[in-house]
Design brief:
The protein is 27% helix and 24% strand. The chain has 88 residues and is α+β, with helices and mostly antiparallel strands.
Length: 88
């Protein structure tokens, strides 16, 4: 993984990332670069889910790929999971 300024990569995130197909991994990496540079980018569709994921945030890497994260002080984001639509 490339170095990021605002993203904290966890072992849980890496474990979920490595289960994805190579094409999905490339989409996730592109989305991570955008999330690190400009989380307001329209293609990311950053939002706060409800229900079981309340308290976390979500960013889209594609129509079905999601990155979930937790906001940390100082604008940093702790990556939780890379998955098909919320853990599918």
């Amino acid at each position: 993984m490339p170095p990021y300024r605002s993203l904290v990569i966890t072992t849980e995130f890496l474990a979920s990332f490595t289960t994805l197909a190579p094409t999905d991994q490339r989409r996730i990496l592109r989305a991570l670069a955008l999330l690190d540079e400009d989380e307001g980018h329209a293609s990311l569709r950053v939002h706060q889910p409800t229900g079981a994921l309340a308290g976390q945030w979500s960013a889209s890497a594609s129509r079905s790929l999601r990155i979930t994260f937790v906001r940390l002080p100082g604008g940093r984001k702790q990556l939780v999971e890379a998955s098909h639509h919320y853990g599918d």
